[in-house]
Write a structure and sequence with these properties.
By secondary structure, this protein is an alpha/beta fold. The chain contains 15 helices and 22 strands. The protein binds nicotinamide-adenine-dinucleotide (NAD).
Length: 490
């Protein structure tokens, strides 16, 4: 099996470098609570270096002047190198993030796929010719913003970094990316793949540090032109304040409290299996997790029994041993989740199964948890838990189910379980969410646009729509004659 190094540097201006202040951050394996590596802790001075490098690369126009098909080929090269390193990446995702090796390998392959997908689109970002009559030629140029600052969360750092870096490079922006301090290791493989693929120096810079200093220094840096943030609503709000100071655009991919509605005609077993995958994948640490299920009152006990049986059947343990329910990222996160479960019980919800930490295991594990008797006013029904915790709510008529699903501040995902296409369309049209899954939670892919409504954010990542967030339209209007319908003089 591949081995991981025990010290990781930042990647700035095409070189692996220590932090200028010389400090390091210890990285813990959440499955064992053991320290597995150290990283160079980037702070403001390192951010300055990285932004200067990204600015110099952008100003040189090296990426912009390239024929777009050649920029695409660069991205294909990055994808090839990521694929070659897939086993090492899988191990990194397993050891610093808690995933299974198969889950880590999926991350590597998905990251590579983002680079091939956007590499293929690099030469298809086109402007328009706008007819203004014989005396003018008018056209638009999709123009890169400049230096894109990208901030990534700890749950799927590699995939999330890959989707943003690939879009930025395809459109000739340059990047400074801050990886998450809790699980940064896999994102460094993007830097390594860029290095091996011959990406120009300074085009991609990857560093890691704490949010309050490194992240804050990056998003408020006067040398950046664009922000892509994926993370919590609270951090997103503070970043939006920094962006407002300098009037720069942001893509905001924030949290969710997504609900699936089970209609009376649904295939209950299919809905239960899909719901279990929607909430227990990566221990529920998924922004698009299905954290609520809304069921007809008449089906409540049948559905809850099946869900509880499914939850109890999951093996709990380290991802490296191939368990079903893997750890949450940290002791603090485990405490927060257990605290929310205890508060839910005190508020009158019933933990049909789970609700506690697994203190018998050395890492940070939470039991697969299902709450019944949940009412829409409860915190457990409204706030993101970011753990393996499902709230089941009930309804009498379909309009009420839609109101319950739409009744939180979030609007990331929603789901519908039904055998009837008309019901699926009726519900999908009314659900306030960036994506609606019918009969399979997480249905979609790299090709499908992803993003939030309401407090889940704005802008879209993934799919062709994402590229629109990385270019701004410049219109060029040309008077070509002195009048007279374009007839050449002389
Ligand atoms: P977080 O907001 O705590 O941290 C996200 C990133 O922001 C980290 O890299 C962190 O270091 C950085 N950060 C923290 N404070 C900062 C500041 N003041 N300035 C700049 N950067 C700062 O989120 P998290 O706990 O890492 O991730 C979980 C959250 O992310 C959940 O709410 C989840 O729903 C959301 N998420 C959303 C998506 C999506 O695509 N919509 C995907 C994954 C996760």
């Amino acid at each position: 099996m591949a081995e991981l190094k025990n010290y990781w540097q930042n990647y700035i201006n095409g070189e692996w470098v220590d932090a200028l202040e010389g400090e390091r951050i210890e990285i813990e394996n959440p499955a064992t609570a053991q320290i597995i590596a150290e990283i160079a802790r980037a702070q403001k001075s390192d951010v300055d270096r990285a932004v200067v490098a990204a600015r110099a690369c952008f100003t040189s126009r090296e990426l912009y002047n390239m024929r777009p098909v050649n920029r695409g080929a660069l991205l294909f090269g990055i994808a090839r190198h990521l694929t070659e390193m897939a086993d090492e990446i899988a191990l990194a995702e397993c050891l610093d993030n808690g995933k299974t090796l198969a889950g880590g390998k999926n991350e590597a392959m998905a990251a590579a796929r983002y680079f091939t997908y956007y590499g293929g689109l690099a030469d298809k970002v086109e402007g328009r010719m706008i007819p203004l009559g014989a005396d003018y030629v008018d056209y638009t140029i999709p123009t890169p913003f400049g230096v894109s600052a990208q901030i990534v969360p700890w749950n799927f750092p590699l995939q999330i970094a890959a989707r943003s870096v690939a879009c930025a490079l395809a459109t000739a922006n340059t990047v400074v990316l801050k990886s998450p301090e809790l699980s940064p290791l896999s994102t460094y493989f993007i830097a390594e793949a860029c290095h091996r693929a011959g990406v120009p120096k300074g085009a991609v810079n990857i560093l890691s540090g704490y949010g309050h200093d490194c992240g804050a220094a990056l998003v408020s840096h006067p040398g950046i032109d664009h922000i892509v943030f994926t993370g919590s609503v609270a951090t997103g709000q503070s970043i939006l304040h920094a962006a407002a100071e300098r009037v720069i655009p942001c893509v905001m991919e924030l949290g969710g409290k997504s609900a699936g509605i089970l209609f009376r005609d649904a295939d209950v077993d299919q809905a239960v299996n899909s719901t279990a995958s929607g909430i227990f994948t990566h221990a529920g640490q998924v922004c698009s997790a299905q954290s609520r299920l809304i069921v007809p009152k008449a089906l409540q006990s049948q559905v809850i029994d099946k869900l509880a049986a499914k939850a109890k059947s999951l093996s709990v343990g380290p991802g490296i041993d191939g368990h079903d329910l893997t750890p949450v990222i940290s002791a603090a996160q485990a405490d927060k989740i257990e605290g929310m479960c205890l508060a839910a019980s005190q508020a009158g919800a019933e933990a049909v199964t789970g609700g506690r930490k697994r203190d018998d295991l050395p890492g940070h594990f939470i039991e697969a948890t299902i709450f019944s008797n949940v009412t829409p006013d409860m915190t457990i029904a409204r706030e993101e838990v970011f753990g393996p915790v499902l709230s089941v709510l009930t309804y009498d008529d379909p309009e009420e189910a839609i109101a319950l699903a739409n009744g939180t501040d979030y609007g990331l995902c929603a789901g519908v379980y039904t055998r009837d296409l008309a019901t699926a369309h009726w519900a999908a049209d009314r659900l306030i969410a960036g994506q609606v899954f019918v009969n399979e939670w997480f249905a979609g892919g790299i090709e499908t646009p992803f993003g939030g409504m309401k407090r889940s954010g704005y802008g879209r990542e993934k799919g062709q729509e994402a590229l629109l967030n990385y270019v701004q339209t410049k219109n060029v209007g040309i008077r070509i004659t002195g009048g007279g319908g374009g007839r050449p003089g002389g």
